[in-house]
Structure formats: structure tokens, C-alpha cells
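Protein: Histidine ammonia-lyase
Species: Sphingomonas changbaiensis NBRC 104936
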Amino acid sequence: MLTPGSVSLAEWRNIYDGGAVALDPACAARIDEGAAAVERIVARGEPVYGINTGFGKLASVRIADADLATLQRNIVLSHAAGVGDPMPAPVARLMMALKLASLAQGASGVRPATTDLLAAMIECDLVPVIPAQGSVGASGDLAPLAHLAATMIGVGEIWVSGERRPAAAALEGAGLTPLALGPKEGLALLNGTQFSCAYALAGLFEAERLLQAALVTGALSTEAARGSDTPFDPRIHALRRQRGQIEVAAALRTLVAGSAIRESHRDGDTRVQDPYCLRCQPQVMGAVLDLLRQAAATLADEANGVSDNPLIFADTDEALSGGNFHAEPVAFAADMIALALCEIGSIAERRIAMLVDPALSGLPAFLTPAPGLNSGFMIPQVTAAALVSENKQRAYPASVDSIPTSANQEDHVSMAAHGARRLVAMAENLANVLGIELLAAAQGCDFLNPLTSSEPLERARAAVRKAVPKLQDDRYFHPDMLAATRLVASGALASAAGVALPEVAA
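Structure follows.
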């Protein structure tokens, strides 16, 4: 049940993963009140922004009552000016649910028919085809949300069972009627931060899955390199007092507990300290966990808020014009998620590089039984390095940028849209890096047979070996990498380990 104002991140994640959306019936009264207030405001005949005036720089232009419906239709059509590839359908569907939750709080002044149509489109899996470029994250995510609104009036395209169909035909096929917009409704549909917020939430959910997978691959790499578990000792982390660090260290201890590999070199190990990529996992991954939780808190509030303008207050019949559409909170959250994704990959790539270097790992060069004749993991490490560097370039904060728009009426913008939009691609890069680490760590542990790791890591290793056999001689590597990446990105690897791992968006 979608209860606007109190939807948990776990519920948003369920929607992102394809779960059902059912609006709380208790919203009906608030929606009715907001729509009735708009009617009373129109009847007063006073100029009110977004209801009977032009928009943005044209706010001083008064619109006659006879033209109010045309005004709302025009703003949708004129603002549907996005470009680029379509949004991924799961993100677009999440955006629709976010918009529904915002409108259903009654502060946007839309009629029940509007929320009913949006809810029906979600239920029928009619996902608009929305070009992903064109928002600067201020005055709302105008262009992408206008493309959503356009499909509701029968214009544009909708995904139907994976095929692009004209919006009017898609609605008709589902027994739905295109909307005739009332006063304020066009602006209410395309004003807000739901595009940026949907992408940021998608990035957050992917980052959580990948953080958990990285704890498993990092622990397995520690085993392959015969690293020490002393850096995971709880006494070390209690003195630091960082919550994420304490939790990550505890997870790593659980993952490696009972390892015969560790016991085999506990006495007589000549290495005093492991490289940072092994030893400092609690510090780095703990900081990542804390950062993601900060971003999650911001996005939880944003997802439950109303970012329309003007806002309708039915108790006083007022339409108050403000700036809730400015997506600065989302921009900051997206930047934090980008930094987290970047750092998870950066330290993971260093572990891969350590494992393929015999001087550091003590394992055969490039993790192949016959170095020279075979190249083994030489180029997968290069691929990981390329992906990590690409993510570094993408991690530059979007929120520090701004460019004036709309004839300087919108003179400071958040850039939240592309700050959030990059996260899905960054997560895909990271999943590939962790997939490579998973293969390298499993291969490294294979060289230590018959010694075994802990029960959780042996379960994870078995999942890898079920999908990808041990590398003996060089073979076509690409399918192996794809299989390992699927284990990482799907959450199957973390599930296989069978232990509780830190959560970000519970």
C-alpha cells in the first residue's frame, strides 16, 4: 500500500524491482479538497501563478478563463522537449509512483481523475517512453515529466510489453481514456523532482547491492592473498567510533570466521601488515556505508515530499509560490552516491591488481597455472582499471555546477538530473569490476586447495564455480565475466554467502 508521506525506502525499492503499486484510499479526501480549492481560486478571478497566468518568465501574462484548459495542454506539449535515450523502464515506473505519491497529498490541486489515470497506467504497466536528457534539476524536472504528462493526454509513446506504441493507442488498448487537463494540472504533472529522485533512488538501491557484494568479494580476495583478519578486530573499530566501520568490520569477521586458509598461516607469517586494499576495508567500506546512509535519509524525505509549485492549501484556499522544485537535496545525495560507487570500485580494483601480481600475492603470475603461454587475468585487470577510471571521471560533483535558464528567471539550478542519471551507468561499471574481482579471488583460492575458506565464503565460491569453471588454459573470457557480473548485480552472490550484511535502505 502506497501511503504518501510515509513510504519507506524498502517500499520504493520494491516498486523499482517491479512490485505492485496500490494507492492508499485514504488519499481520496485530500485530493478532493485540493481540487476543490483550485476551483474556488479560479472562481475568485484573481491572478494566481500556474493557474491563470503564464509560466516562468511569462508569469505576468494573465490568461482568460476560456483558455485555461488550453494553457495547461500547451505547457505539457511545449515542455516535452527531452532528447537522448529513453529512461530505463524500471526507473521510469518508479518516477511515476513518486509523482503519484506527491500528487495524492492534495497540495498540487489535481482532480481524482488525474491520479486515477496515473495509478491505472502503473497498474497496467504502461510506462511512458521518456527521453532522459533535458532537465537541469530546477523548476522541476520539466522536460522528462512533461513527456510523462504528454502520454496521459494521449501524446507521445508508451512501452507496452517491451514495444513502443503511440500513447493514445496504448491507453485505448488498456481501456483508458486520455486526460483533459483542468486548471493547474499540466503544471502539477511536470513540476517536481521525481525524475531526479527516481534515478537517485535507483542508484542508491544498486549501490547497496554492490556494497554487500563487495564485502564478499573483498573477504574472498583477503583469503586468496592469505591476508590477516587482525584488522577486523572489533577493539580497533570501537576506538574509532564510526558506525559504518564497526558494522563492516563485523561483517568481514563473520565472512571469514572458521577459515582453514587463515588458520594455515596464522603462525609464522612473515608479513607484518597487509596492503591497504585488504587491511583498510573496514575504514573505506564503512565510510561508504555511512555516506550512502546519509544519501538515503535525504532521498527518503524527498520521495515522501511534495515538490510542486505553486502549492495549494485547501484550508485557506491559498496557492503559495515557492521553490520546492529546486532539486539541490537530490543533487547532493546523488553526488554522495557517485562518490560511494567510485570508492567501492577503486579499492576493489586494487585488490585485483594485488592478486595478479605474484610479488604481492604469492600466487602464480596473473592467476594462471602456466604464465607466459597463458595470460590469465592480465587483461581483465586492465578492464577493471578502465572502468574505475571512467567512474572517477563521472564522480565529479554535479551539484557544484549551475547554468541560468528561462531568461534568467531560473538563475541557479541544481543539476540533480544528470547527477542522478549517471549513477545507473556507474553502478553497471562497478558491477563489472566486482565480477572480475570475484573471478580472480575464486581463482586465487583454487590455488590454495585443499585448504578451504569459511563456510560463508565457500558457499559464495560454490556459486561462482557453478556458473564459471576454474581457469586452466586461456579461453574466451567474456562469458565468464558476464556470468560473474550477473551474480554480483542480482544480489545472488551476497545471498549465497548466507550471512547478514549491512543495509543502507532498510
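Remarks: Strands lie at 83-86, 127-128, 131-133, 157-160, 163-166, 311-313, 318-320.
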